[in-house]
Amino acid sequence: MKALEKIASQTQEEFYHEHVTNYIYEHPEQFEIKWLEGPSQLLGRKNIRLTIDTYGDFESAKSIYEKLCEVNPFPTIGDIITYLDNHIQYYHSMEEQISKNSK
Fold first, then answer.
1. Is the pTM of this model over 0.90?
2. Is there a single domain that holds both residue 53 and residue 90?
3. What is the domain range of residue 60?
4. What does the pLDDT read at residue 62?
5. What is the rounded distance in angstroms from the CA atom of residue 22 to the CA atom of residue 13?
6. Are residues 80 and 93 in the same domain?
C-alpha cells in the first residue's frame, strides 16, 4: 500500500495510476523489487495469460472459471492448465492479448 500511495503522490500521469508497476520498474532506485518464482506448472507456458487487463481477458477468465467452478469452487493452477489444454480455443485469444499487451 505504501508503494501505491508513493506513486500516487509522485506523479499525476494517468498511465502510471493505471499501470503502477511501470512506474516502479522505471524508478527502481525508489523501490525494493523482488522477483518471486511462479508455479512450476507455468514454466515455459508463455501462451497462458491469467491477468485481467482488458475486456477480452475478463470474458475469457469468466468463461473458464464458470466452467471450472461448476466442478470445484477453488481450482488450482494445475486444474486451470488442464482445462486450457483440453479447451485450446482459449489459447488463441490469450496469445492475441499477450501480443497486444506485451511490454
1. no
2. yes
3. 40-101
4. 95
5. 12
6. yes
C-alpha cell at 73: 469452487
Instruction: Divide the 103 residues of the chain into consecutive groups of 10 and give the mean pLDDT of each group.
Output: 91 89 93 89 90 86 94 94 94 87 67
pLDDT at residue number 103: 58
Eight-state DSSP code of residue 88:
T
Q: Rounded to whole angstroms, how far apart are CA atoms 68 and 76?
A: 10
Using CA atoms, how far residue 53 sits from 25, 58, 83, in Å, is 18, 8, 21
Express the helix, strand and coil content of the chain in percent, nearest 5 each: 65, 0, 35
Write the DSSP string, 27-58: -GGGS--------GGGTT-TT------SHHHH
**pLDDT for res 85:** 94
Residues 25 and 46 in one domain: no
